[in-house]
Amino acid sequence: MTTNNIHFKKILTTWTDPTFISKLFFSFGFFTLSLIINYYAVRYATVNAGEPIGDLILNILPKIDTTFIHEKLASILQTITALILVCNPKLINFTLRAVGVLVLTRAVFINLTFLGLPQDSVPLQSFYTYGGDLFFSGHVALAFMIALIFWNIPKIKYLYLIISLGMGIEVLVGHYHYSIDVFAAPFITYGIFILSKKLFKEDAYALEKDTRELR
Question: CA separation (Å) from 100 to 2, 35, 105, 143?
Answer without folding.
Answer: 36, 8, 9, 14
